[in-house]
Amino acid sequence: MSTDVAIRPGRAHAPQNRSRRRPRPKRDRGRVLRLYVPLGLYLVFTLIPFYWMVVFAVRPSGSTTPVPWPITFEHFETVWNDIGYAVFFRNSVIVGVWSLLATTVLAVMGGYALSRFRFRGRSLFMVVLLCTQFIPGAMLLIPLFTIFKTLGLINNLGSLIVADTVFNLPLSVILMSGFISAVPFTVEEAAMVDGCTRLRAFLAVVLPQLRPGLIAVGSFAFIHTWNNFLFALMFVSRQDSFTIPVGLSYTIGEYSADFGALAAGGVVAAVPVVCVFAVVQRYLVTGISAGAVKG
Amino acid sequence: MKRTTAWAAIAVLTVAVAGCGSGSDPGSEESGKTTITFWDNNGGTRTPIYQELIKRFETANPTIHVEYVGIPIASVQQKYDTAIAGGDTPDVGGVTTSYLANLVGQQALEPADDWLGKSAVNGKLAAPMLDSVRDTVPDGKLYLVPGTSNLDVVWYLKDKLPEAPKTWDEFFTDAHELTKAPDQYGYTIRGGAGSIFQVLAEMYAYSGVTEFFDASGKSTVNDPKNVEYLTKLAGLYKKDTPEADVTNDFPKMVAAFGTGKIAMMHHNLGSYNDQVKAHGADKIGAFALPTGLSGKRTIVANPVDGFAVFKGSEHKDAAWKFVEFLVSKESNSYWNQQTGQIPANTEAQGDSWVTALPHLKTAVDALNDPNTAVVSPPYYLPQFSSITKADTEPLFQKVLLGQMKPQEFLDTMAQKLTDAQAEWKKATGG
Predict the structure, then answer these.
(1) Which family does it belong to (chain A) (predicted)?
(2) Distance separating alpha carbons of residues B263 and A104, to the nearest angstrom
């Protein structure tokens, strides 16, 4: 709504009286109540667990003060050196990055096929993809273990990469097909008319427009893989091949619980993810909403 | 050109995946060295202890390399089950009697009777622990070489409770008198995960009942004196204990006790290091569960923790050698001194550090007292774990909240145990 002072026709525009205060629009107060107060409350609700985690991570064992003082980094030393987080962190990064790359590439390929081609069984295939989301990973532990053992992938990070990629793919393929469908085929067609092959047309015309979608799919794949505990514990039986979620579970023993180490481990696990999301968040929101339009 | 680049990228990816984390197979023999794998069933907190022991073992046995793998306690049963189904078990594994029957049922373990008969540690392992292990399996064989056991104790803060209660009446009185809500509570109840075992230990300690099943095979869980105790315990909730107790699992309970606002907490010897870290060794004390109505001390046996050799091991001699080392006097003493638990090796039980730790001396004295009766829970029942966890933990919460009567709760649990016992007897011809 314009707040400009109305100008009478035929008259020169009279200068504004700067001493008069412009009345505050009522909708600002309403906006604060409708938008910022609920957001603020939700933010507090969301951030309290993070605050708890940071407080426990930096205050000495036995301390109960809500504000951590004095600050200590002994828990970080414990998790990084004694528990072996340095190794777990490296493994988590390897598995996370490779799973991200594999999921993204395969999701683009599968999503393109679902989006651009009409083939027999396409609808059934999409339904089957969706139905696989209902199968919990725990049910497939033993069959997957047997397959990986036959392939010689037990105690190998490759088993985690393959398993996580496979479980990430169904939703990623469906999501990516939505993003690709949002790009008009006519643009691709025009490139092909100009002499490009289908692949060249895809790479030159479609792929650049898929950046938000690629980031959305890649981010979800990375987060899911980063947090995966079950596969990391079951398909690997070497101390130097475990990942961060397994390392976090070490801090709660049968008869003891080191909350400081648990919190420090949580901070170590959360920081990379938070940094990644801070960088990609604007693409993520765009990607999710764009993908939701067409499917 | 671009197509070549794409295929090259795929080839590199494939090779990189295949190369990720691959190393030499455990159990392989390289330059005369035998490698055995050892899975620690409580990985993380005890990893440094085992790493030290492995270093000592390898120094004494240079032809054997032990590959240590720590398994988080919360997932160890699932890990073993997956490994057994997939045919990828370790050579030696840490096992407790709470899931021993499950592993034996899958025929995964090698009996230790013949080995123990010829071993240097024969006659030096605590007989009650050996009996407890044999009682867990239908064929009565020794599938687990005991390394340690535990005892339920009540930890208390000495500045709040100068003298430990000796009877249950004194205990309830102290819990009430020490409560100045909301800043201080006399006791904390474990109402969440793991609650039932603690309740069973308290009930049987109070009632003095010495068998889990009577002669006719009926469970004694709903004995009138057990009901009497549970009624008193439920009466403490929210009056002399925090309201949050209803969801207390072990970490929450220990965290709450660590704040210093709770005077007494029932747990076991294993959390000694946590208590010392939170309060200081001179501020913390422990007493065994008080004697009950019978005037005798009755203890519900904690799971025995030890070591098992798996049938699939290709290096059984080396595996048994490692087990023998772990339960020898020096190693068993070192391990239990670090964890604050009861050694299985009787020579280690006589070490000076045992008598120097008051809570451990209390525990060993209680166990060795000829007047102490030990009640063995039916770990051999396949349904025991589900009955005492998934089936009854939510019902116990209802008891605390006043939504279920103690009698009804114990009748339900007793019926389930009786049915499970009858089924087991039918299946095993026992």
Answers:
(1) Belongs to the binding-protein-dependent transport system permease family.
(2) 55
Residue contact B70–A250, C-beta within 8 A: yes
The residue count of chain A comes to 295
Show me where the domains of chain B are located.
28-150+303-363, 152-301+381-428
B chain contacts of residue A239, beta-carbon cutoff 8 Å: 67-70
CA-nearest residue to A87 within chain B is: B21
Q: Is the peptide bond before B182 cis (omega within 30 degrees of 0)?
A: yes
Residue A39 has phi, psi (to 5 degrees) of -65, -40
Task: Return d(Cα B151, Cα A228) in angstroms, integer.
Answer: 35
Taking only the tens place, the pLDDT of each residue in B193-251 is 889 999 999 999 999 999 999 999 999 999 999 999 999 999 999 999 999 999 998 88
Question: Cβ(B414)–Cβ(B203) under 8 Å?
Answer: no
Map residue B182 onto helix, strand or coil. Answer: coil
Radius of gyration of chain A (CA): 26
Q: Distance between CA B157 and CA B165 in Å, rounded?
A: 13
What would the pLDDT profile of B289-346 be if each residue is shown by its tens digit? 998 888 888 999 889 999 999 999 999 999 999 999 999 999 999 999 988 889 999 9
* Interface contact A162, partner B, CB < 8 A: yes
Instruction: List the one residue out of A110, A227, A121 whose CA is nearest residue A172.
Output: A110
Asked if the Cβ–Cβ distance from A237 to B39 is below 8 Å, we say: yes
Residue-range domain boundaries for chain A? 25-72, 84-293
pLDDT in tens, A91-130: 999 999 999 999 999 999 999 999 999 999 999 998 998 8
DSSP for B135-150, written as a single string: HTSTT----SEEEEE-
A82 with B90: Cβ contact below 8 A: no
Q: Beta B152-157 vs B284-288: how paired, if at all?
A: antiparallel
- Within 8 A of A236 by CB-CB distance, chain B residues are 21
- The sign one gets for the Cα dihedral B206, B211, B213, B214 is negative
Cβ of A233 within 8 Å of Cβ of B279? The answer is no
Token pair belonging to A149: 């053992």
- A257/B251 Cβ within 8 A: yes
DSSP-based three-state secondary structure for B342: strand
How is residue A112 written in tokens?
A: 């393109």
Q: Which of A231, A154, A249, A266 is nearest to B42 (CA)?
A: A249
Where does chain A have alpha helices with state H?
A: 26-31, 37-58, 74-77, 85-116, 122-131, 141-151, 157-181, 185-193, 198-201, 211-227, 230-234, 244-249, 259-293
| Interface contact A249, partner B, CB < 8 A | yes
Residue A113, exposed/middle/buried by CB under 10 A (0-12, 13-18, 19+)? middle
Dist. CA B221–CA B227, nearest whole Å = 8
ipTM: 0.79
Class of domain B28-150+303-363: alpha beta
Residue with tokens 């020794």: B142
Question: Which chain A residues are within 8 Å of B149, Cβ to Cβ?
Answer: none
**End-to-end alpha-carbon separation of chain B, Å?**
76
Q: What secondary structure does DSSP assign to B290-335, as a single string?
A: PB-TTSS-EEEPPPPEEEEEBTT-S-HHHHHHHHHHHTSHHHHHHH
How confident is residue B82, by pLDDT bands cut at 50, 70 and 90?
Answer: very high
CATH T-level assignment (fold) for domain B152-301+381-428: D-Maltodextrin-Binding Protein; domain 2 (3.40.190)
Given CB atoms, is A60 within the 8 Å cutoff of chain B?
A: no
Max distance between CA atoms of chain B, in angstroms, equals: 90
Q: Which CATH superfamily is domain A84-293 in?
A: MetI-like (1.10.3720.10)
